[in-house]
Specification:
The complex is a heterotetramer, with two copies of chain A (339 residues) and two copies of chain B (369 residues). With 339 residues, chain A is of the alpha/beta class. Chain A has helices at 22-36, 60-64, 76-88, 107-114, 117-120, 150-154, 167-179, 229-241, 259-269, 284-296, 320-323, 327-335, and strands at residues 18-21, 40-44, 69-71, 92-96, 130-135, 160-162, 184-189, 196-199, 212-215, 220-224, 246-250, 253-255, 272-279, 305-309. Chain A contains twelve helices and 14 strands. The chains are: A alpha/beta (339), B alpha/beta (369). The structure holds thiamine diphosphate (2 copies) and magnesium ion (2 copies).
Chain lengths: 339, 369, 339, 369
């Protein structure tokens, strides 16, 4: 028995539109990717019999067998380091870090190897692998279960970092990440796991690397990604009541960054607010402010502002709502944009 | 061939083929060559702690179902391990617990509401570590084992004879930090006891997918320290084996690794569905090895546990439960401003951000009036 | 024998001004701190008999004994985790990570424990400890020996992050970091280890948290820290030849950030360039651009610009000079500031 | 007491009290119950590789002094370990070397200039890993051991019988990744051989500050795999012990941990000052156990190594050195634009930043004309 020969034939025929939660869309993406390419493997903690603590890998072991979706010993550096070796040897591993903060034991492997292998080997060894990280808060989780860890990854050259905000993007971006020739950090906003959409699978949305305007507007651009996209949309709807036309951009991909879409929008609207859940200091939000300002300076009517988490450790469940960017906080900052 | 590591006496580092047991599942004494049965007084104290611990655990389980806790990882089935290990320590020895070790903390004397604060969600930790010498319950697996080593080594440098007792699960032994902690402790001869509660599972992952070692205690020899195995459902054996390791550490002879063989009767937490990965039969088999009933049977057999005593402990346990219902049932009072109070000793550092929240709160309060 | 009682009496009397390299100033700071406070310990890899690969701990074991400066087994998470426990028990450990990239195995301990202990315990357990990290490049080091890792630390709430650029600051900031009630990441620019100054020790420079104007100017503010401060000064000198008056700020402390000094300068000059060696994306430099722009928007004649390392893994020795911010690159960007 | 881990046969997992030796330091055969002497042809091949490896190492050491390399961590004294381990593998088995294992790579057949590219500084790695099945030399300690496990497990899933040979130093065994790698390999029964070159030091830190285990090979039982010890200066013993482990792995019986006892004669690297932490006497004692001279003596004794053969190998070695002097002596041609070529498969992603450098280079070139 060899895995590479034991191709499971699950035909990728368009199905009727069905309701999917984001978590289910991710499961479908994994299943379709594993069916389409025998080199795709899924492993991590509790991803086998249990189907993952969020059930994203539900049924994969049953369908594809223990060789293609399996539990590992409990060690995140081990999981990622093993994936590096498997990717070197022809597989396309997808690994799950159970929660954001539990990817930290793997940071050395990620920073020193995952991100650098292609470069170290002068292009000879690429690592097509995906590290799935359920991240961010808003679900009443206790400490270490709600971190927004994207800055660590986004700052590390060699990584590709994406985060879907809709079930459709969850499916499409995960399929694309698995097909990508380089390692992708795939950040899943836990809070949106249960958001639903009607999908006809398989589907593909805009390509990885492209930001998308989720709501067009003319007065100000809200730039969000992952867990804050729904807030930005809610804020835009509320602002409309007050006569402001708010454009909302969903970045989708943090690295590479879609300057063209963002810049064109801000040049049009002349104002921008970045909305992110992570602590603001030296964050992805800082980067967005910096590059938008560099590129749109003369179109700006007001400084680009940020609505982010505070520069504090993620709060305990009972207080998290005071920390998270809220619609009110977004609206307040929009109002301050020197109209 | 000159070797750099000591060569002698290392066979004593290997654990016994069978876990040490002093009282079997029916309450009968199973004498052991190396370990004496604890005194009757000690066993009665252990019995009382088990009764209290179990009641506490049941009450917490009830309250998580009622939504009073964000999550609860039950100790059900593991009470003898936690109680026995704690009773083997002095009150100024330090405990380094995980999220699972609530019964251990209650046994040490930490206020039960303090123990559950993390899980209720009003703060990350609900007690002063220096008061009962208990580190904050630790979630990132195995990380606390290094803190235990550092604290213990520090004690030794200060000339104190404090011992650190590190709690850790079977799954967490796979983490790199566990290896580093064992090795640091061994090299520095730090007074640490590593107490592994092998409850058979790391969430859904059974031990045989975690390790194929003869036993987890066999890891000890790789660090040059003794490894011991104990029946983790036999509180008498746990007390004896852990006490010996604690006294060895206290005497400056260095760390010990102990594996307690036990079982988690409940799911991983209330959020877990254990039927997905284990058989009801296995759970039933382990219920037959219940850690409370065997010591109950033993102490009633010796006559030490009278109806009256038992009734007294039961009443005490009810009082703990009642107190929990009352105090944990009330909504916690939290002040959002506190989010900024403990990030740095110097509160000024986050003053700007705190002001933003203050303004929002002032507005809300204004709107509320 | 107990360490806490075995106070070594090395009187801290002012000495004649002597020439110190930055490395020697650090050694002196460690020695003086250990003499002044018996709770101060130093440990890590090769810091004992060898005196550290950069000789910063030279002589400490000889002077203070094996209990106060000692080698550990080779494991960075172990070193930092052990320091956490020692700090909990009354000591003030200083630990050395041998090189920047070799602190990565300790990132979980740093992010999840070092940074959060005071907060997790509701203020009950503070961790007065210092993690010394020789960082950044310019010394012809091979891969993993030249990373600029400050963004990982600066983004992590709960950490204090400083980096000296002069021997005097090396001494003073290290003394202050050791006395600080919270954990400090002490970033030592390897390239400046051999820079010299005449110092009369003990000395104290500006307090931790304060940025310093190293060279006053009126036309544009260069904002630098650690390894890039000398470049910024060189660029300023060169610009003067061409008639531009360039102010140079040495941040010294990345967290906390001295907004007052930076903002006052940029409001005066109306132009700013941030110079940092780390990859630019989601970096400390991004943060500086973002906050300066937020706070000085209406004083700005041109967008705040960055001269940083490229978004690539640190290059091999023979090519590093193409990556590092150079005086020319700084001058070019200054020229582009829409004069 | 039901246990989850297998209970039987684990005494075979413990290493022997003494390292396996087949030829002593004077060249005399020391027969061993479990291991046969390799064939004369194998030993001659090993001798040749040792002579070449040593000459390569000496030449690299010379060239680092001349400033032709940024740094060089010498293999002097460890050649038998590296040569023996590599010769125990098939050419399609994968090596996972560290910075120290240059002689191993030369033995496998990697172009010596490719081996030294990292240390010369023109690129991070100078050879195609897929050509000779050699992973890039690894600097972050112990991290490569996990890559070896992954690659080996992948091979098994593909139905290939490739084995991964992981090189690691004594110091690096303290890192968490080493623990995780041993455990993953054991649990997945991955075809990996972990080959620890215990050269007594991690830079300045001697083994007794690194570990107080009876031996590093004693760690194996904690993962349920066999641990072996071998005289790392005896190329015959290394070949035999590693071959057995490789064949065991190839046969699907899982990983082995091997500790080779050897010594680093030179300083850690040219940048290191070994007089700060070790005694010249110790070094002298180890010179007496030289890995080349004993096999030289043995093979001359059996008559297998004639003057003619020896002269031939010496000439080959000189040719290697001469080639290195020539090719490594020339300044490498580097193209700064390449900095942007390999970060991502898609070069467009860094096009903007590459353009900035392009413009600067164009200006420089313009100025140069
Ligand atoms: C570093 C890290 N990785 C993953 C997790 C998620 N997690 C929480 S508990 C657990 C299983 C732990 O098993 P074990 O160590 O056996 O302890 P038990 O829960 O059985 O007491 C996992 C994977 C974590 N808390 N920390
Ligand atoms: C993670 C990590 N920490 C620290 C270092 C710095 N360093 C390089 S070699 C070395 C000693 C390694 O000793 P050992 O494993 O015995 O190998 P040897 O050099 O003796 O072959 C150290 C500390 C490193 N390369 N990686
Ligand atoms: Mg468990
Ligand atoms: Mg070594």
């Amino acid at each position: 028995m060899t895995t590479l020969e034991s191709r499971v034939d699950i035909p990728e025929i368009p199905q009727q539109a069905t309701t999917y939660t984001m978590a289910q869309a991710l499961t479908a993406a994994l299943r379709d990717a594993m069916a389409a390419d025998e080199r795709v493997l899924m492993f991590g903690e509790d991803v086998g019999a249990l189907g993952g603590v969020f059930r994203v890998t539900d049924g994969l072991t049953r369908t594809f067998g223990e060789n293609r979706c399996f539990d590992t010993p409990l060690a995140e550096a081990g999981i990622v380091g093993m994936a590096v070796g498997m990717a070197m040897n022809g597989f396309r591993p997808v690994v799950e870090m159970q929660f954001d903060a539990f990817a930290y034991p793997a940071l050395e492997q990620i920073i020193s190897h995952v991100a650098k292998m292609r470069n170290r080997t002068r292009g000879r060894v690429g690592l097509p692998m995906v590290i799935r990280v359920p991240y961010a808060g808003g679900i009443g989780g206790v400490e270490h279960h709600c971190d927004s860890s994207e800055a660590y990854f986004a700052h590390t050259a060699g990584l590709t970092v994406v985060s879907p905000a809709t079930p459709a993007d969850a499916y499409s971006l995960l399929r694309e990440s698995i097909e990508y020739p380089d390692p992708v950090i795939f950040l899943e906003p836990k809070r949106l796991y249960w958001n639903k959409a009607e999908l006809q699978l398989p589907l593909r949305t805009e390509p990885l690397g492209r930001a998308v305007i989720r709501r067009p507007g003319t007065d100000v651009t809200l730039i969000a990604y992952g867990p804050t996209v729904p807030h930005a949309l809610d804020a835009a709807a509320a602002a409309e009541q007050e006569g402001r036309s708010v454009e909302v951009i969903d970045l989708r991909s943090l690295v590479p960054f879609d300057d063209a879409t963002v810049t064109a929008s801000v040049r049009r609207t002349g104002r921008a607010v970045v909305v992110a859940e992570a602590a603001g200091f030296a964050s992805v939000a800082s980067e967005v402010v910096a590059r938008v300002t560099e590129q749109c300076f003369h179109s700006l009517e007001a400084p680009v502002r940020r609505v982010t988490g505070f520069d504090i450790p993620y709060p305990p469940p009972k207080s998290e709502h005071h920390h998270l960017p809220s619609v009110d906080r977004i609206l307040d900052v929009v109002e301050e944009l020197q109209w | 061939m000159v070797l750099h590591a000591p060569e002698t006496g290392h066979s004593t580092l290997l654990p016994s083929a069978e876990p040490v047991q002093l009282i079997d599942e029916h309450g009968a004494v199973t004498p052991h060559a190396d370990y004496d049965l604890p005194s009757e007084a000690e066993l009665l104290a252990a019995y009382r702690a088990l009764v209290l611990g179990r009641r506490f655990d049941r009450q917490a389980t009830t309250m998580v179902k009622q939504g009073r806790l964000a999550v609860y990882p039950s100790s059900n089935g593991q009470e003898a391990s936690q109680v026995g290990a704690v009773l083997a320590t002095r009150n100024d020895d330090w405990l380094f617990p995980t999220y699972r070790d609530c019964v251990a903390l209650v046994t040490r004397g930490v206020d039960p509401v303090g123990v559950l604060t993390l899980l209720r969600g009003d703060w990350h930790s609900g007690y002063d570590p220096y008061e009962q010498h208990v580190a904050p319950q630790c979630t990132p697996l195995a990380t606390q084992s290094l803190h235990g080593v550092g604290l213990a080594h520090a004690a030794r440098l200060k000339g104190e004879d404090t011992v650190a007792l590190v709690f850790i699960g079977d799954g967490a032994t796979s983490e790199g930090d566990f290896h580093e902690a064992l090795n640091f402790a061994a090299v520095f001869k730090a007074p640490v006891v590593f107490f592994v509660q092998n409850n058979g599972f790391a969430i859904s992952v059974p031990l045989d997918k975690q390790s194929v070692a003869p036993s987890l205690a066999h890891k000890a020899i790789g660090y040059g320290i003794p490894g011991k195995r104990v029946d983790g459902n036999d509180v008498a054996a746990v007390i004896s084996v852990v006490s010996a390791a604690v006294e060895r550490a206290r005497a400056g002879e260095g760390p010990t690794l102990i594996e307690a063989h036990t079982y988690r009767i409940d799911a991983h937490t209330n959020a877990d569905d254990a039927t997905r990965y284990r058989d009801a039969h296995d759970v039933e088999a382990w219920r037959g090895k219940d850690p409370v009933s065997r010591i109950d049977a033993y102490l009633r057999g010796t006559g030490a546990l009278t109806e009256e005593l038992a009734a007294g402990y039961a009443a005490e346990a009810e009082a703990v439960a009642e107190d929990l219902r009352r105090r944990l049932g009330a909504d916690p009072v939290t002040d959002p401003r506190e989010l900024f109070h403990h990030v740095y000793a110097d509160r000024e550092r986050l003053a700007d951000q705190a002001r933003l929240l203050d303004e929002e709160l002032a507005l809300e309060e204004g709107a509320g009036q």
